[in-house]
Design a protein that fits this description.
15 strands; elongated; Rossmann fold; alpha/beta; 3 domains; Aminopeptidase
Length: about 375
């Protein structure tokens, strides 16, 4: 289906403008207008979830996106300066919905959620922008909404861009993000990580229907010492302390540290070990690396005749373990944070959280 686009820029006549036109023989009226025709996807079809509009700078990506999506094209947005990130979303959304969205796009750090947007890294800011765009689909009028995101991954390094793309794709295809999504970008390298159902390439102005496959992520796991913990400590959502007697492991991807796990004996339980710390660095969150890491260690300890458990209150950890046959639920309880001396008010129910313990299911592991 073709779309005709006509672009024009106002002519601000001045002495310097006329000088440039004269020196370089620039035909002003001609250069300030542009018209082209391009194929566009059938957005009304119900057989797609993710689309990609890509092309070099100046190829008309944003103009085409504005024509196709109008107010549903998400561009830059203002974040409140004196509020936590979690308070920068629409008031109709619950804290649970907001944190689920942040987690689904790879920003799963509670300490980060309570910071203001301005102090976050570029990668964290990008994920917050992405979550806020996707939050529009959770509003009462957002059913079956198409969310188009301009300048997708433009301000982040390419590793973050790929990981965030994969996390987004996973969230949409599993249904945790209830929207159809279109990325608008000049970066071709996100295509195989985003796994779009269609691609509009403005370099050739053609639409292709294909779903690329994400490259394999292969982690290497090594024993390490407690000396590497400071690299991960500030990203852990509970205490940053680490027991000196812990067995420590690190997961590497392309020789880059991505995750850390510490394991301790389970007191009073012979032959049992527990995960005391499990942290994935922010740039690599959203792909499930942490739990795959934990499951690899579950197999490792099983081979030694030991059982491994994990206790967590993070919704993503609980949700994964409940879905996966590799974990079985051991205990469930609600914990209430102890009152602390603070100038901040205590809100009713604010300290209650669900805490669940799971054990690695070695029986399933043997028969799988």
């Amino acid at each position: 289906m073709p779309l005709s686009i006509s672009l024009s820029s106002p002519l601000y006549d001045s002495f310097r403008v006329q000088q440039v036109a004269g020196i370089f023989d620039v035909p002003l009226e001609e250069k300030l207008t542009q018209s082209f025709e391009t194929e566009v996807p059938d957005l009304a079809a119900d057989d797609w979830k993710i689309g990609l509009i890509v092309g070099p700078s100046g190829s008309g990506k944003s103009s085409v996106a504005r024509e196709l999506f109008g107010p549903d094209l998400y561009e830059s947005a203002h974040w409140p300066e004196n509020s936590a990130v979690i308070d920068g979303f629409h008031e109709d959304l619950s804290a649970r919905e907001i944190t689920a969205l942040l987690t689904s796009v790879g920003f799963s750090s509670p300490p980060g959620w309570v910071k203001p947007y301005a102090v976050l890294s570029n990668g964290e800011k990008f994920r917050c922008d992405l979550a806020r765009a996707l939050s529009l689909a959770r509003l009462p009028d957002g059913k079956n909404r198409i969310i188009a995101f301009d300048e997708f991954t433009s301000v982040v390094d390419r590793t973050v861009a790929k990981v965030a793309s994969a996390a987004l794709s996973k969230g949409i295809r599993t249904g945790s993000i209830p929207a159809r999504f279109v990325a608008v970008t000049c970066h071709y390298d996100v295509a195989e990580w985003l796994e779009p159902d269609w691609i509009l390439d403005l370099a050739v102005r053609k639409v292709t229907r294909r779903r690329l496959r994400r490259p394999e992520i292969r982690l290497e796991i090594f024993r390490t010492s407690t000396s590497v913990w400071p690299m991960f400590a500030r990203h852990h959502y509970l205490s940053a302390s680490l027991n000196r007697s812990a067995q420590c492991f690190i997961a590497m991807w392309h020789e880059t540290p991505v995750a850390f796990c510490a394991v301790l004996p389970l007191i009073g339980r012979k032959g049992q070990r527990r995960i005391s710390r499990l942290v994935t660095l922010p740039d690599f969150q959203g792909l499930g690396i942490g739990m795959r890491f934990a499951e690899a260690l579950g197999s490792y300890f099983h081979e030694q005749g030991l059982r491994l458990s994990i206790t967590g209150s993070h919704p993503a950890v609980i949700a994964h373990c409940r879905r996966s046959p590799l974990w079985r639920t051991v205990t469930v309880h609600r914990a209430t944070s102890a009152p602390r001396k603070s100038a901040m008010p205590r809100y009713k129910g604010a300290g209650a959280r669900l805490v669940v313990s799971f054990e690695f299911n070695s029986n399933f592991e043997r028969t799988a």
